[in-house]
Design brief:
UCP033199, 117 residues, single chain, mainly alpha, DUF2200 domain-containing protein, two-stranded antiparallel ribbon, Helicase, Ruva Protein, domain 3, SP1917_dom_sf
Length: 117
């Protein structure tokens, strides 16, 4: 099944970021933990993240400029009904990796487990 994900790719990361934080905080987790996940996945730091948010960078650019963690292949399981390891579109897979990690945080997993350490 091939779907057109252009709309998702063009969404500003800054538009979704507050939802990641809200999802985590609703379950007693913190913005710092959300940021730690983003930093681990992308190789970004707080300055780069702030720049991405301020410049309303889209998901396509967000992941194009990221240096993905070498352990991303250890991220498995389902998100939104899809197995992340089976998603064929490379950009959508990266977006779902991030969704999956935030989901694990909200479900109470320890940061060590989420960051595949």
């Amino acid at each position: 099944m091939k779907t057109d994900n252009t709309r998702v790719y063009k969404m500003a990361f800054s538009g979704v970021y507050p939802h990641y934080i809200a999802k985590a905080e609703k379950k007693g987790r913190t913005k710092a933990e959300v940021d730690a996940i983003i930093f681990w996945l992308t190789g970004y730091d707080s300055n780069k993240l702030r720049e991405i948010i301020n410049n309303k960078i889209d998901f396509e650019t967000f992941f194009a400029e990221a240096e993905l963690n070498p352990n991303v292949s250890k991220i498995t399981g389902t998100i939104c009904g899809y197995r992340v390891e089976d998603i064929e579109d490379p950009l959508m897979q990266k977006i779902r990796y991030l969704d999956k990690l935030i989901d694990e945080l909200a479900k109470g997993k320890t940061l060590e487990k989420i960051l595949r350490q």
